[in-house]
Amino acid sequence: MEFQFDLSNIARDQIIKIDNTLLPVGYQKEDPELQMIISNVLDKMGQASGIAQELKSPITSAEKLMRSDHILYLMTEQTSPGHFVVVGLLKMGWKKLYLFNKKGSRTEAMVYCLLDFYIHETRQRHGYGIKLMDYMLKDNQIQASQLAVDQPTNKLLQFLWKYFNLSKLVNQGNNFVIFEEFFENNDSADKETGSDRSSGYKSQPTFGRHGAARQQDCMANILYGAKPTETQNGNSNENANRVEYQQRENKQHKEEHHIEVQHQVVDEGDGHTSNHTHPKLDLKNFHTQLW
């Protein structure tokens, strides 16, 4: 995309890294004129990207970049001495996401996300896209499989499959796409480095049968409504006391099951007396009714 103003101040390198100051990263001085130029470039490229992706509104603009901690990579090309054109853009940023792996376990983690990726139509299929992507990956020392991609188009998915062999999607239930290799790479990296970058993916599941409360197995707890232990701190004394309590209650129940409680002898009016007993409690049937 061509612009009427001079881009030589920022196009010293083919790829320019821009932060929320609307200036190249490492730029030492304030330069309102350069900020205005970059702002214009971002707005125009953002609109072109939105049209290419058939979005209702652009997801990249100078105003949105200023209000975020995102990083934007601009690719330029010199067509003649002193004349530059903008070829494409790539917007990246960290986001806290709820992630689901292929087993259905949910975790929360900070993930580096690909938020916008666009190469001008006149420069597509010429290797500019992979060059821009490789630059970003090397700059962040990250692999493509470790990214979450926001609302990828079919063209972008084909791009990731062609150059990075990424095709096994894990449904996240939101706009982001994660690949199976995302979890595998984090686990293998932790084993090699001894770090715990993927601790979020190893946390206890918060839903499903693994996250549900344990059922009350003790008959005394079922009959008398004793509350299950809420936490297990590994204290051997508490465990011993709990086992002893359960055994005592079970023994008491067993005795009650086999003993008939006798009523006092009563006169029925015909000169005869009889002993009345309570019916026996069928624990088996009672237990079945509870469930």
Q: How does this model look, in words?
A:
It is built from 9 helices and 9 strands. The chain is an alpha+beta fold and 291 residues long.
In short:
With 291 residues, the protein is an alpha+beta fold.
Strand order, largest beta sheet: 1-2-3-4-5-7-6
C-alpha termini separation:
69 Å
User: Which percent range describes the beta-strand content?
Assistant: 15-25%
The radius of gyration over CA amounts to 34 Å
Number of strands: 9
Q: Kindly state the percentage of residues in helix.
A: 25-40%
Low-confidence stretches: 188-224, 226-234, 259-269, 283-291
Please count the helical segments. 9
Shape: elongated
Question: How does the major sheet shape up?
Answer: 7 strands, mixed
**Pairing-aware structural class of the strands and helices?**
alpha+beta
* H/E series: EHHEEEHEHEEHHHHEEH
* Integer average pLDDT: 74
Quick tags:
elongated, seven-stranded mixed β-sheet, disordered C terminus, 291 residues, two-stranded antiparallel sheet, 36% helix, 20% strand
List the helices and strands and how they pair.
Elements: E1 15-18, H1 32-52, H2 62-66, E2 71-80, E3 83-100, E4 106-119, H3 128-140, E5 148-150, H4 154-164, E6 169-170, E7 176-179, H5 181-193, H6 208-211, H7 219-224, H8 236-258, E8 266-267, E9 273-274, H9 283-290
Parallel strand pairs: 4-5
Antiparallel strand pairs: 1-2, 2-3, 3-4, 5-7, 6-7, 8-9
